[in-house]
Amino acid sequence: MLAAPSASGMSGVDASLGISGHRTSGQAVRHANVTAALAVANMIKTSLGPLGLDKMLLDNMGDITITNDGATILQLLDVEHPAGKILVELAGLQDSEVGDGTTSVVLIASELLRRANELVNQGIHPTSIISGYRLAMREACKYVEEHLAVDAESLGRECLMNTCRTTIASKLLSTDPDFWADMCVDAVMSTKTVDPFTDKVSYPVKSIGILKKQGKGSKESAVLKGFGLNCVRASQQMPKKLEGGIKIALLDYNLKKYRLAFGVQVVVSDPEELDRIRDKESSITKERIKLIIDAGATVIMTAKGIDDYSLKFLVEHGIIGIQRVLKSDLRKLATATGGRVVESLATLDGEEAFDAANLGDAGSIEQIPVCDDEMLLIKDTPVRKGNTILLRGPNQFYLDEAHRTITDCLLATRRVVESGKVVPGGACVETALCVYLQSFATTLGAREQLAIFEFADALLMIPKILASNAAKDAVELSAKLRAIHNISQTDPSEKDLQYRGLDLVNGTIRDNLEAGVLEPAMSKVKQLQFATEAAITILRIDDSVRIDAEEPQGGGRGGI
Predict the structure, then answer these.
(1) Per-residue confidence (pLDDT) for residue 8, from 0 to 100
(2) Any idea what the Cα angle at residue 77 is, between residues 75 and 78, rounded to 5°?
(3) Closest Cα partner for 178 from 170, 169, 191?
(4) In the predicted model, is pLDDT for residue 4 greater than 60?
(5) What's residue 384's pLDDT?
(6) Catalytic (active site) residue 103
(7) 408 is a catalytic site residue
(8) Are the C-beta atoms of 215 and 373 separated by less than 8 Å?
């Protein structure tokens, strides 16, 4: 039972409740949570920035992953501590929302926690700290949007290119950033969609497929116009190319010879009856395929398999059959072609039918060669235009990292074109906010002032880590940058200095807006919001109860 006192001197849960486990409360649980958060942050600290280092992770299956992407590293780690899991989820949220800044958001959250723990040790109540952190976060987001954000439309296409270059700078593809940036911008801009009812413009980057094919050099990568599928025809006797008025049936069931369900037994004494049963099984399969063909389908795609018996009918009618298509690809095609994924031919009347309205439309479908392999390319879809980025590279490690980098670039570019705002990179935003928040904190006469001071100092950790990872003097560079931003905020004639940031290659300070080191403004705002809320979530915890697993009654083994 929980009779043993906790580290904070409190006894366990009341034994009369009949709960066995271990309880930690007060400062002990807060210290444990902060320690776990710092352990997670230290794991990815050295991978921050354009000169950060890579991590090599080996899972229990023997698969190796080499990357410096914060979200990928944390997802592959087997983190058991609840506070550590919150930071892992935090990185995943930043990755899905923005695509970039996953490492920074975890580092900021962990530093906020560490400094909050120090304030608690000094006698400041966690509620006062939480109130101060939320106030600082709101003021920081407001300052970014009003003073540091720059209109992306005024900078033109070069702004999107620079955003991609900044995202690529810390990745494996940084050897040729212009090539990849141009590819990503072209892919995103081609997905432009205008809502006919609201005239709202969106860029659905999920419609951009990414296929990896090992071989040749990375410069052989290209953007293909159309939806690419890593599949081939189910039979070599099917046509390789179809053009004009293509009707696509999207299925999520097997096209195989009908068989009785498992457990059903039929006793047959007459051999002729056995032949009739077999003929009926064959006719059921044939009728099902005929329903789809009669509806006008010229291409049949299924997430399951197609057996030889069914292939014979498809070949006879000149239909292209494609099997083992990913369900995610089927859903994308359904959206793009105006079709619908069909899971069964059954109707409410107990009959079987295939509605022609479920068919999707396309201009052409073709099987094209790619190195030693082949793939399918579907063009001219009416509802949504799709593109496919074909990645080439020397090995699978390179292709996997390139895939992650391209995904981040696509998301970052979309955020820029949709929000229309960018901010300078190179720790410019964090340093400016540090100076502003410290000045803002002096205007408050409550305990929240201390929390805002700590919030400001926590942001200064980003330029220090960036400089340290680049083998530069972190203290000197961060001090110089801080002084420059202090001048820009106090002297109206020097306001242009607010775009100054770190040049990590030369170890100097420069105007990063002019240098083209740009990030989506939304990335910084989301970092501040997500990191603050994650830190507050962990800081609010003052009691932890771990329930022991129940032992089988009677001491015997459970189960049947």
Answers:
(1) 42
(2) 110
(3) 169
(4) no
(5) 82
(6) yes
(7) yes
(8) no
* Tokens coding 402: 């390139």
Instruction: For residue 71, name the pLDDT band (cuts at 50, 70, 90).
Output: confident
What distance lies between CA 79 and its chain's CA centroid? 19
DSSP 197: T
Structural element, H or E, at residue 341: strand 341-342
* 325-349: pLDDT as tens digits: 998 889 888 988 889 999 888 888 8
At 247-276, the pLDDT tens digits run 999 998 888 776 666 666 767 777 777 777
Concerning whether 102 is annotated as a catalytic residue, the answer is: yes
Q: Which residues contact 136 (CB under 8 A, 6 or more apart)?
A: 437, 440, 441, 451, 452, 455, 456, 532
Alpha carbon distance 39, 85 (integer Å) = 12
pTM > 0.90? no
How confident is the model at residue 544, as a pLDDT?
73
Distance between CA 20 and CA 366 in Å, rounded? 64
* Catalytic hit among 65, 67, 103, 381: 103
Per the residue annotation, which of 24, 65, 67, 69 is the catalytic one?
A: 69
Of the candidates 375, 393, 382, the one whose C-alpha atom is nearest the C-alpha of residue 228 is 375
Sign of CA dihedral 276, 278, 284, 290: negative
Residues 472 and 523: their CA atoms lie apart, in Å, by 26
Alpha-carbon distance of 387 to 187, in angstroms, equals 6
